[in-house]
Structures
1.
Amino acid sequence: MTAERRPLETCLPHFARHGSYPPRWGWLPKVHAAVRQDPHVFSRPDATVLLAVGSSMVPAMRFWALAFGLIEPEDEGRGSGYMTTARGRWLLDEDGADTWIEEPGTLWLLHWWLLSARPCRVPTFWHLFANWGLSRVSRAELRTSVRRAAEQTGWKAPSDNTLDRDLTALLAMYAPPIPTERAPRVSVEELLSSPFRELNILTFDDVEAVEAVSAYRAAAVRGRQIHLQRIRPDGAPAAIMAYACLDYARAQGHTGPGTMSLAALASAPGGPGRLLLANETLVRRAIERTAGKRGNSLAIVESADGQALLSFGEDPRALAAGILADHYS
């Protein structure tokens, strides 16, 4: 198969490993501290006491810490122990950049880490942000599209029940809760269950009054639809966007000075524009705001044919780390 026919090739063929739970307030710092103290915390009989959650949430906490790249298995996964990663220690140590995840930009950074991971552990999430080209989608449409993408990638298609658990976690993570007839008021606990709702990435649209192009289309969209805020001018801070561009350049194989097309950064599946909800103008603006602090190491230049390029004068990994350090200092 060609790369174009393998839409989920950067992901693991894993669905709903989170048990339908989104990452909740305090989970990531709690896991980081627990793993530093005991690498085998998740296999301990008193794990629920140590992590102060129910038994079904323990594997979910482990899953999300792994998915964000904050912990990793010891001994290449042969044992039951885990250890914190350099990324996790940089962010969540007692003297880390944002120990309790209080800086709003950290949520955007974690969102980028989650979806840009190689391999990504949430293929349903990745497909919505990286591959889905429209700003609205129903649950049924997204289920069908993810199943098709899995088959095109060479995987066994997940069941509807499995994908529904994935969608439950996705919407609980990013979309605001919706009052119902049985629960006309949303509880404080529900409002505070996921910090990523602050990013205002997903909402729901009432599409009863949407004019459809055909009777079939009308049947398909009737009811609530998921609305993806495809362009967010007030989204990720400039430093996080610039970091993501350089991190993406590194993932594309750049290990020294080089250039990348701004158009590609903004529109490539899996690129910072798609995953951080920005167009080329917003990507350019973020880089220009960050470049002034980096001397000649970071700039926007034009190619001979007039194409706008991101130019980096050193290893993008080191340059990206410096941008994060400046942002959090």
2.
Amino acid sequence: MLLSKNLAPLRAAALEKIDNSAGEVRKRFITSVPGQEMVYQQKRVEAELLMAQLDVAPAEIPHIVAEASLNGITPYDQAVVVLTMSQQWMVISAQIEETRLAAKQAVAAAMNPAAIELASTIDWSAYHA
């Protein structure tokens, strides 16, 4: 028990290291700006609404309409772009999360400082945008 107690600060630091490194990897795929996540979520909601109701009023999908206009495409095509990007993010996000959680599990099981350090050092090189 004493060994486990002595390792608690190392485990805590390792868990923080894992979370921070996962956050850095996520930034390779998403915009890390305050509020931007909410914009992306709104675009997805609007894109889903358009797909469910093709005659939706433009005022109900302002993000999609504005971006489609800027891109010179139809709102429908913009909705396809948004939903495709969202699907791609879901796939990579799940992979990052699995890696992050597995590393945390390995830290919890590690029995000495070297094992904790090894468990918290993730090779993220396979994750590139």
3.
Amino acid sequence: MVQIKKEAVKDVATLTKAAPIALAETKAVLNQAVADLYVAHVAFHQVHWYMRGRGFLVWHPKMDEYKDALDAHLDEISERLITLGGNPYSTLTEFLEHSEIEEEAGEYRNVEESLERVLAIFRYLSELFQKGLDVTDEEGDDVTNGIFADAKTETDKTIWMIAAELGQAPGL
């Protein structure tokens, strides 16, 4: 049987009780990411449906890959928020009220215009993930920091690739 010093148990209990308060900003940025990732998924689905023109055969299925990546981040971030005692947004109303990504009416656009929208969303998400890195550094949450680091790394690589397709520098 493992013996634990009384002081260590007391320290862990104190940290556990303080963690919900101490990680308030971390929880807030996690929940912001929940709202934005969900709305980004919907926006990419819209792009998927309304894209036309040269490059369609390549980019139409690529939107499915992007949606899958967003969903993976959304699930991991939501579960981390729950682990920290938070309550992730979970209704359409909450997603729309809290997301910084604006809804747009569906309209047919050429591939380049469609990719400009996707690129703008990924750039916003990269900034949000950087905010998550900053907040979690400040609050000392290495686990959540790692989640944001992984999401930002993947997002920044995607920005580079889409920007290159559009003849642009990544602008990171």
